[in-house]
Every structure is written in structure tokens, then in C-alpha cells.
Backbone:
């Protein structure tokens, strides 16, 4: 890995690490007994571990001059490892969170381990840790293959990947210590947010420079989505996180947005984090790895255009469906509802495009668990977007809002779509990246598939049941016209479902652990050099049309 | 034709990025910008009071512990909610909230109008161990709050930061932040009278966790819970004249 860097680059990498570590040291000193100081120490340790790694390889031979003739896949490899590590952590926290709702004493009387603090470690762990690392890793892989050019920069891709993981680490350790802004999916405090801006701008520059050097006239569809993901997440992140810290030596800050405006900004952010993080980015994966694995071109180019611009334009209007019947002005709620319903068109256009791509390859879907992961993901994508558009209709939302129905919808999307498409893509990517004929154990891929499907179905059905039951109980009246159930009555009805959900989640977690093991073993097996045409354009005359490789 | 046009923008990375930004900006601008300019967005409430330093500290503990992950603070305009929790929430009630804590999941009941519903004693017992008060509850126990002294050193910076983003704390309030926090949990003290002068006669002064010798996080959190829904006096007429919607 270090051998890919020149001596000069190794030195600059160390310099950069020292700079970041010094910032950490400064935070540790001025922070006093605030968690700010603890975060300073974490930054120093993080830099120290990476510096130790760089130093251990410092004397390795320098790379060949013709680095430009090979793809740069080291960051992708490490990104895959980090993604799976976060998956296991985040899903373990999910199972723990789920178990606490059924058996509250599992918090063991700790402050750090109570529900309110560990719930965001779950959401951040899976969305940003697992999902984000997978997106960075695959986007680096895809943009090189579809542009037929090596990634721009030598250190900057590492800065993006590792800097991003530092952000995730600050976020998660912060929640345990009680550092949070409370904004869902944007909990980290101001200094972590600032750091992410630096990392994200670098990501944007790396991606754009790579595209600018492409040896293909057109930008491939997958890259449209990755680009939308990078650009829009930057806008959302900056606007939603505008805040005034109480001092520059403490972690606490106050958002500049007051009350009702804060609600609108937060859910404009929150919904579009779903749109551009959990949807656009993963559609990018889908548009490359699914046709690749099925060995069929994308069904329709026109549908791709329609769904891309539909998603980019419509989603941004939909955030207010999180605020139906609240103190947000009516006209905004109605706009949100209208656009959410329209959103079904581009969403299903994407799903349809993907399924029709598979049309004619159903025998492969039957035999190949990897492809089946992707097909199931598309089905769940279609399902959760339909459900979302339905739940955005005001009267439906009056029932679903505040209940587990929302949580069921979230995980139909998160487990069924986000996680399955990621596993499918990684199982396609890993053997190619490590130049193996196939995964270490196809049987384990098969086992993972069925665990994931069983886990998702149990989870989602449990939450649909509990959500709808609770929603209905809240609004049930007796003959005399008074409310039939106390709140606690409705809580008691939830316990069986909370237990079922914990079981479903545990199955899903088990699948992820098996997947990690399988990926690890695939990478670890002795290298079997095979002739390869997996090199940038200059060397490879082979010129397949979409998707290129 | 369209396809041809698209083929063109696909050839320029920068052009594509600009097109994305343009397409993605419209929705947010149309929905968010007017909220700051249209007068009716937030109702007028001249008698609204500010959070006292102790209540603000309690609010920050509420945020820190993630109570919002299980409790909403937003009674919707639905008949069953109004009957269960009280008058539906108005925008003005969260005018000074940075951030808002409306919540998105009700594992526990709504807390927008919890202030005054229970005694301080009830809250302390409940937070110590919810299952002693409500055996079926799955709310976590927060025993450590009574053991942890409240950090008051930052209160001035807290108020100051709030003022810089538009919450009308006066210099006097900021200067006396620490004293005011202590006074609110020490009934009959000299400073308590000053606190009432600054924040209004209705401000609740009480021993909250039952012990006056030390200011704890429990004091702050209970003080916050007790003020929820009581910053504004809701005009009774307005409540009656806007019929709440009935769930279909
Ligand atoms: C092992 C599998 C998982 C389990 C057991 C699990 C469990 C949970 C639980 C118990 C909650 C809290 C629900 C509540 O407050 O009532 C939750 C929330 C959430 N989880 Fe998961 N989860 C899992 C996987 C995932 C994955 C893979 C993702 C995303 C890629 C995800 C995204 C979320 C999100 C976004 C929320 C917040 C939902 C909301 O606020 O409405 N989860 N999860
Ligand atoms: C057409 C597409 C979609 C629409 C219209 C839509 C609509 C909705 C609606 C109406 C809610 C409930 C808001 C509330 O009552 O609080 C919601 C929540 C949510 N949806 Fe979707 N959804 C869509 C697709 C997706 C997808 C693909 C995911 C992927 C994971 C997803 C993730 C979430 C999350 C995480 C929440 C919970 C937010 C929270 O309360 O914390 N949605 N969505």
C-alpha cells in the first residue's frame, strides 16, 4: 500500500498527519474537562495509528514511474474493510437498541449506554460508517473504470477515506459522551461538521478531477448519481449545521435556526439525506455493478435520464412530509405531500429500469446469490418508495407518523435496499479487486442472502404490525366518545413486536458477520496472478461499451 | 431531441455539476425562504417568556440524553391528540428553541404540555426508575442525574450564544446567569426574588430534586420539564375558535 507512494508523498502524508495531530493536541489542551479535549486525544491516537503504518512502510521500494497506467485501488480495498467493520458495529448497536426497547434493563444503569445515547451510534454507524465507506470505496472504483483513467491524486483519496472515518469516529464517540446537536442524522457538533466540510470538498475535487481526465466522451450514468450525492450532501450538510458554538474550547453549540424554521431546515436535510445519501449514491452502485454482474447493458438510457433528473428535482421539495399536521404552515405541508407522490414516478422508473435490465438473465438470478442480492434490493427499493409516497399523503401520515410504521419503512429501505445493494456490489467487486476467480465461499454468500432476507422480512413485518396497531389504538374511541386506551396500554401491545424485531435484526447481523468473514478470506488467500486487462485506457485497447471495464 | 441535449451536458463535468445544483436548489428555496418573511408563520405572543438559565441547562440535558428519540414535543392538529395531550402546538411556542425538539417517534408520550401535569417529586421518582412508577415502561433509568452536580460555569456563554442568534436575553440576565440558576432551585432565597423579576412571576422556584444544598442535573431537567408548554399563555379563545381536524 505504502509502496504505491513515492518517498516525497510518504513525507507529505506524515506531514499532514502531524498537522492534524497537532490540532488534536491543541484541542486536548484548551478543552479542559470538556469532551472537546477527549476528542482531541482521539484525533491524536487516530493520526498515530496511521502514522505508524506509514512509517512501517517508509523504506519500501518506490513505485514504478508508470503508475498512471494502473488503476488506484488501494483506497477502495481499505474502504471495503472499513465499511464491513462499521456494518458489524452499527448493526450490533441496532440489535442492542432494539433489545433495550424490549428489555430496558439492558442499559445496565450506565449513562453512556442508555437508549438516547446509543440510538444515534446505530444510525450513524450504519448510515455513515457502513453506507458512507461503501459509497466512497465503490465510487472510487466505478469512476476509474467508467472513465478509463486512474484516480486523480495519490494522497487525496486517502485523505478523503481516512478523514471521513475520523469524522465517523468523532461522531460515535461523541454520542457516548453526550455530545450531540440532536438533529437526526446530523448529530455531530460544530468541529466535527467543519472537518467533514474539508473532507467532503476534497472528495468533490478528487471525483471531479478524475472525471475531467476521462478518456470516454460521455459521463456514465453511475457517475451522475455519485456526483449528485457528493454535491447535494455538501449543500445539505452546510445549511443544516450552521451553528454558534458557546466557545471555541467547548463542544456545545446552538443551531442558528429557530423553532419552526429549524424544523423545516432539519427535515429538508433529513429527507434529502435519504435521497442523496441512501438513494442517489446507492443507485450509482446499482447502475454499475448490476449490469456488470448480469452481463447485460442497462435497459433504457431514456429512463435513466428521466429518473435521474426526476429524483434530483422532486426530492428537494418533499421534506415537509415529515411535518404533517404540525405547526408548519399548511401550504408547505401540501407542497411536500404533492411532490412526494410525484416522486414515485422517477423512483419506479429506476426500479423498473433495473428489473428490465435483468429481464433475460433470470436464470442467473436464480443461480447466483450475488445477483439475487441486487435483484432483491431493487424490489425493496420499489416497495419502500411506494410506501414512502403513500405515507406522505396527509391522512395516511396522521396514522403512521410517530409510530413504528415509520421505523418499518426506514428499514425496508435501509436493510432491504441500502444494505442488500451494498452486499451485492461488494460481492461483485471484491473478487475482481483482489483478482480472484470468485468469492472465497459461494455457499456463505448464499447463506448470507437468506439470513438477510429473513432478517429484513421479520423486522419489517413486525414494525408494520406494531406501528399500525399503535396508531389505531391511539385514536380509538369508546362508545361514550372518550379515548379507549391509555398510552401505557398501547405500549404494552408493542412488546411482542419489539422482541420479534430484535430476533430479525440479530439474523441480519449474523449475515453481515458471515459476509465480513467471507470478504476477509477472499482477500487473504494467496495471490494468484492472472493475465488482466483491468487497466486504464492507454494500455488496454479493449473497448467495451457500458459499463466499461 | 431531448436525448441529444442530454448527450451534450454529459460531456462536461462542470456543466453537469451546475445543472445538479440548479435542479436541486429550487425546492429548498421555495419552501424555506418564505418561512422567514411571511408574517403568519409564527403567531404573535407578546407575553412569551424566555427559558431561565436552569431550564436551559435542563433542556441541554434533555438533548444530551436523547430524550427526543422517544418523546415528541409537538401535539398535532388531530382530535385524539388534542384530547390526549392538550391544545395542539403553535409555532410560537418553539420560537426560542435552538434546536427545536419536535421529535419524530413516540415510544413514550408527547411532552409538549407536560409542565405542571405532575409534581417535581413524581418526576424525580420516575426518572430514577420509570418502572417503579409505571411497571410496564421501557424508558431508561436516569439515576446518575441526581448524583451529578450541574455544570454552571458555561451558563453565561450559553445565554450569550443564544443572544447572538436572536433570543432576547438582556445583559443583566447574562451577568446573573449562575446566580439565577442557583436561586431557582433554592426557594425563599434572596436571589429568587430577583429571578422572578427578570423572568416573570410565574417562574417556578422549587427544590426540584428535594435537596437544596447542591444544584444537580436532576434539578435542571425537572425545571425544564415543568416549564414545557408554559412559556406562552395560550389565548383560550384562539384554541376554541380553530377547530382541530379530526383524524379521518
Ligand atoms: C441489524 C440490523 C438492524 C437493527 C436490529 C436495527 C434496529 C434499529 C432500532 C431498534 C432503531 C430505533 C427505532 C426506534 O427508535 O423505535 C433503529 C433506527 C434506525 N435505523 Fe436501524 N437497525 C438495523 C439496521 C439498519 C441499517 C443497515 C440501517 C441503514 C442503512 C438502519 C438505519 C436506521 C435509521 C435511519 C433509524 C432511525 C429511524 C427513525 O428515526 O425513524 N438500520 N434501527
Ligand atoms: C419515493 C420515495 C420516498 C418517499 C416519498 C418517502 C417518504 C417518507 C415519509 C412520508 C416518511 C415519514 C415521515 C414521518 O411521518 O415522520 C419517511 C420516513 C423515512 N424514510 Fe422515506 N420515503 C421514500 C423513500 C425512502 C428510501 C428509499 C429510504 C431509504 C433508506 C427512506 C428512508 C426514510 C427514513 C430514514 C425515514 C425516517 C426519518 C425519521 O423520522 O427519522 N425513505 N419517508
Residues:
Amino acid at each position: 500500500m505504502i509502496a504505491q507512494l513515492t518517498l516525497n508523498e510518504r513525507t507529505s502524508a506524515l506531514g499532514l498527519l502531524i498537522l492534524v495531530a497537532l490540532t488534536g493536541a491543541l484541542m486536548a489542551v484548551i478543552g479542559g474537562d470538556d469532551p472537546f479535549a477527549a476528542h482531541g486525544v482521539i484525533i491524536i491516537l487516530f493520526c498515530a495509528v496511521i502514522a505508524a503504518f506509514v512509517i512501517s512502510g517508509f523504506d519500501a521500494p518506490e513505485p514504478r514511474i508508470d503508475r498512471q497506467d494502473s488503476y488506484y485501488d488501494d483506497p477502495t480495498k481499505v474502504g471495503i474493510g472499513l465499511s464491513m467493520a462499521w456494518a458489524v458495529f452499527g448493526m450490533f448497536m441496532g440489535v442492542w437498541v432494539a433489545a433495550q426497547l424490549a428489555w430496558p434493563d439492558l442499559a445496565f444503569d450506565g449513562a453512556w449506554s442508555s437508549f438516547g445515547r446509543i440510538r444515534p451510534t446505530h444510525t450513524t454507524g450504519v448510515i455513515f460508517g457502513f453506507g458512507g465507506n461503501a459509497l466512497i470505496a465503490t465510487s472510487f472504483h466505478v469512476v476509474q473504470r467508467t472513465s478509463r483513467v486512474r484516480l486523480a491524486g495519490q494522497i487525496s483519496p486517502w485523505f478523503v477515506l481516512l478523514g471521513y472515518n475520523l469524522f465517523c469516529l468523532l461522531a460515535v464517540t461523541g454520542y457516548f459522551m453526550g455530545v450531540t446537536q440532536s438533529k437526526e442524522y446530523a448529530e455531530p457538533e460544530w468541529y466535527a461538521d467543519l472537518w467533514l466540510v474539508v473532507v467532503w470538498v476534497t472528495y468533490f475535487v478528487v471525483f471531479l478531477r478524475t472525471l475531467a481526465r476521462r478518456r470516454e466522451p460521455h459521463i456514465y450514468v453511475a457517475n451522475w448519481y455519485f456526483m449528485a450525492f457528493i454535491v447535494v450532501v455538501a449543500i445539505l450538510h452546510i445549511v443544516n449545521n450552521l451553528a454558534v458554538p458557546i466557545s471555541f474550547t467547548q463542544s456545545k453549540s446552538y443551531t442558528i435556526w429557530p423553532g419552526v424554521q429549524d424544523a423545516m431546515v432539519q427535515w429538508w436535510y433529513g429527507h434529502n439525506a435519504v435521497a442523496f445519501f441512501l438513494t442517489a449514491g446507492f443507485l450509482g452502485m446499482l447502475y454499475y455493478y448490476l449490469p456488470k454482474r448480469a452481463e447485460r447493458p442497462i435497459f433504457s438510457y431514456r429512463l435513466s435520464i428521466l429518473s435521474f433528473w426526476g429524483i434530483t428535482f422532486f426530492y428537494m421539495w418533499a421534506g415537509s412530509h415529515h411535518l404533517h399536521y404540525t405547526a408548519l404552515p399548511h401550504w408547505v405541508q401540501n407542497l411536500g405531500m404533492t411532490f412526494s407522490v410525484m416522486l414515485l414516478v422517477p423512483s419506479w422508473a429506476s426500479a423498473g429500469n433495473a428489473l428490465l435490465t435483468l429481464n433475460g438473465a433470470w436464470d442467473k438470478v436464480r443461480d447466483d446469490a450475488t445477483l439475487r442480492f441486487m435483484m432483491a434490493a431493487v424490489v425493496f427499493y420499489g416497495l419502500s418508495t411506494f410506501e414512502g409516497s403513500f405515507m406522505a399523503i396527509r391522512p395516511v401520515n396522521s396514522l403512521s407518523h410517530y409510530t413504528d410504521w415509520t421505523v418499518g419503512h426506514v428499514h425496508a429501505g435501509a436493510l432491504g435496499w441500502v444494505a442488500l445493494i451494498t452486499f451485492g456490489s461488494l460481492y461483485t467487486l471484491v473478487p475482481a479487486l483482489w483478482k480472484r476467480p470468485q468469492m472465497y465461499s459461494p455457499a456463505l454468500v448464499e447463506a448470507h442472502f437468506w439470513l438477510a432476507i429473513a432478517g429484513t422480512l421479520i423486522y419489517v413485518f413486525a414494525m408494520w404490525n406494531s406501528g399500525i396497531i399503535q396508531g389505531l389504538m391511539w385514536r380509538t374511541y369508546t362508545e361514550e366518545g372518550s379515548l379507549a386506551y391509555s398510552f401505557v396500554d398501547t405500549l404494552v401491545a408493542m412488546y411482542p413486536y419489539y422482541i420479534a424485531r430484535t430476533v430479525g435484526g440479530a439474523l441480519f447481523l449474523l449475515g453481515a458477520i458471515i459476509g465480513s468473514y467471507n470478504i476477509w478470506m477472499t482477500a487473504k488467500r494467496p495471490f494468484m496472478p492472472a493475465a488482466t486487462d483491468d487497466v486504464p485506457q492507454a494500455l488496454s485497447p479493449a473497448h467495451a461499451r457500458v459499463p466499461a471495464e | 431531441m431531448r436525448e441529444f441535449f442530454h448527450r451534450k451536458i454529459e460531456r462536461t463535468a462542470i456543466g453537469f455539476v451546475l445543472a445538479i445544483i440548479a435542479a436541486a436548489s429550487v425546492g429548498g428555496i421555495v419552501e424555506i425562504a418564505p418561512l422567514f418573511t411571511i408574517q403568519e408563520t409564527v403567531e404573535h405572543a407578546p407575553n412569551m417568556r424566555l427559558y431561565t438559565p436552569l431550564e436551559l441547562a435542563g433542556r441541554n440535558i434533555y438533548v444530551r440524553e436523547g430524550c427526543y428519540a422517544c418523546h415528541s414535543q409537538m401535539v398535532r392538529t388531530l382530535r385524539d391528540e388534542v384530547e390526549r395531550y392538550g391544545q395542539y402546538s403553535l409555532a410560537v411556542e418553539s420560537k426560542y428553541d435552538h434546536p427545536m425538539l419536535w421529535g419524530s417517534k413516540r415510544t413514550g408520550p408527547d411532552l409538549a404540555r407536560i409542565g405542571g401535569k405532575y409534581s417535581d417529586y413524581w418526576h424525580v421518582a420516575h426518572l430514577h426508575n420509570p418502572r417503579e412508577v409505571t411497571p410496564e415502561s421501557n424508558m431508561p433509568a436516569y439515576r446518575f442525574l441526581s448524583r451529578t452536580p450541574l455544570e454552571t460555569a458555561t451558563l453565561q456563554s450559553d445565554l450569550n450564544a443564544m443572544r447572538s442568534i436572536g433570543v432576547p436575553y438582556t445583559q443583566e440576565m447574562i451577568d446573573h446567569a449562575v446566580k439565577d440558576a442557583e436561586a431557582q432551585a433554592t426557594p425563599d432565597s434572596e436571589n429568587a426574588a430577583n429571578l422572578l423579576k427578570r423572568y416573570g412571576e410565574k417562574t417556578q422556584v422549587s427544590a426540584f430534586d428535594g435537596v437544596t444544598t447542591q444544584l444537580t442535573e436532576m434539578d435542571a431537567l425537572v425545571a425544564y420539564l415543568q416549564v414545557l408548554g408554559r412559556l406562552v399563555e395560550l389565548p383560550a379563545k384562539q384554541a376554541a375558535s380553530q377547530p382541530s381536524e379530526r383524524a379521518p
